[in-house]
Amino acid sequence: MAMAMSRNKLLILSFSCVFLGIGILSLIPPSSGIELGEHDKWNHFIAYLILALNWCFINNKRSFFFLGLLICICYGLSLEYLQGFVPGRVPSWLDALANTGAVVTGFLIYSITKTKRG
Length: 118
Fold this sequence. Notes:
Blueprint: H1 7-27, H2 40-58, H3 62-82, H4 93-117
């Protein structure tokens, strides 16, 4: 008999998968043959928006809220920096801006909807 996972465990699993997926896709060399399409900035935005919203739903306490904002932004900036060490990849300030904008948007969406719910 399979045990049902709690909502929080599923959110933690989801956050972990998105976190690792972003890291792997950000640091694989172009020679790997994996293409993510022509909408690079949208890919960044959607991935980091999902990452930020996952964090918000896991840790909805105020102190963890700002920690998550900092962690998600620093993760995006760090991965962009590290791309400079991957053959065939270069860091992009526009990608870093898309990542950061998505994180801030995710946290704002969560804050606004949480305020409206009470």
